[in-house]
Design goal:
It comes from Phanerochaete carnosa (strain HHB-10118-sp). Pathway: Nucleotide-sugar biosynthesis; UDP-alpha-D-glucuronate biosynthesis; UDP-alpha-D-glucuronate from UDP-alpha-D-glucose: step 1/1. Belongs to the UDP-glucose/GDP-mannose dehydrogenase family. The chain has 2 domains: 200 residues, 3-Layer(aba) Sandwich (Rossmann fold); 223 residues, Rossmann fold, CATH 3.40.50.720. The N and C termini lie far apart (65 Å). Helix 5 packs parallel to helix 6 and helix 9 packs across helix 11. It is built from 19 helices and 14 strands. An 8-stranded mixed beta sheet has the order 3-2-1-4-5-6-7-8, sandwiched between helices. Strands 11-10-9-12-13-14 form a 6-stranded parallel beta sheet, sandwiched between helices. It is 45% helix and 13% strand. By secondary structure, it is α/β, with parallel strands linked by helices. It is globular. The chain binds 1,4-dihydronicotinamide adenine dinucleotide. The site of 1,4-dihydronicotinamide adenine dinucleotide has 26 residues, from helix 5.
Length: 469
Amino acid sequence: PIQVKKVCCIGAGYVGGPTCAVIALKCPQIQVTIVDLNQARIDAWNSPDFELPIYEPGLADVVKATRGKNLFFSSDVDRGIQEADLIFVSVNTPTKKSGVGAGFGADLHYVESATRRIAAVASSSKIVVEKSTVPCRTAESMRTILEANCKPGCRFDILSNPEFLAEGTAISDLFNPDRVLIGSLQTQEGKDACAALASVYANWVPKERILTVGLWSSELSKLAANAMLAQRISSINALSAICEATGANIDEVAHAVGYDSRVGPKFLRASVGFGGSCFQKDILNLVYLSESLHLPEVAAYWRQVVELNEYQKRRFSKIVVDALFNTITGKHIAVLGFAFKADTGDTRESPAISLIRDFLAERAYITVYDPKVEEAQIWMDLSEACPHLTLDQIKRQVTIVHSALEACKSKEAIVIATEWKEFREIDWQTVYNNMTKPAFVFDGRLLVDADKLRRIGFKVKVIGRGEVL
Ligand code: NAI
């Protein structure tokens, strides 16, 4: 097979950074360069004290072991492209905000400009790997652009290699993936390129977990996997509403259902709703794809997964307002957690943002604490979520603090928005003593021991539990 010696990754984000750092660790014979247009991000990856731009358990150790040896971070995109034999395109593909397909389709202009840059500066043959999550048949557009612009003697082979890592567990997911998926054209050249990438992964991934399929199947499998994962969450969240109305307990229901080996126990945890940059975006992509293929019933089916998630977030805000005697105007509420899930600093589509937006609309005072999210990020997210408020107005209602205890002090209610482990270990007696009474806890993540808290004196409301306060 073709020997890959130099890898370049375009896009030093949540996917490009960890994936290619792990390739560098597992393949000391390969030189890996991760490039990005964002100089600040590259500087952070290169920071002397390993203050990396993203937080992932175990990531700093991987970077410490490889940076400056066979792993490099650079803003010189062109040089990265020129030197590599294999290039990952791992740029962002957000939902389009305007134009055709606004609100559903993927904004592919970052993928396209990275592809055009490859075509413009490459002076030798390259294997180009689509790592970003893209709508089905994007590889075809990339191939057309590359072929229309390549220099004599240069050939481009295109592969699809979607990433299945989950934020918060990225490093262990990459070390031990359930599967690696590689899609290629079924031509001899396509299969050779596929074998070259497979041999990179074979340095640490067992061969039977490296699946090779056609390009379009590969692209669609990524959207399908995220759609089905999100669908499980929306299914259990839909059931959590029934639990609350009937007195059933969603934990018990999930446990009983998950025991069925055809269903399985994972990813059945009810919550205030899913967040993250991928689930909603990828389902909306699938919806858009279905519609453009004239499959409206299929589109409506998947759209409902996103709608149920919006409903769940709204529903949780309403639970808070209802329990606090139907008004939170002027009340002080602590929001614990701002990241979209535990063990990440990522806030994209975080349910905490929707909750705080709703609370601000009710003119409550909010104090936020998250162990990993930067203050500036919180202000940016809230400004974006509340376009009718100025940042000054937001800051009059929102305070950011540096510990859970501080956040809860003198508040009337605590809302748990992220399942950070440290929130389970809070000294609840001290928290209770320092709160305004009656003291409420709203657990949007099935995190606390509700009975224990009730014994202390709290009024506790847990998602998916029918009990009265
Ligand atoms: P990100 O936004 O963290 O990183 C993308 C990076 O690409 C940014 O730093 C940006 O500056 C850079 N970039 C954009 N255009 C560029 C260009 N033309 N040249 C050089 N750099 C450029 O995004 P993230 O989260 O890493 O996602 C990347 C892709 O991976 C997306 O398609 C996403 O759907 C997919 N994905 C994300 C997962 C996640 O957990 N975040 C998991 C699996 C897939």
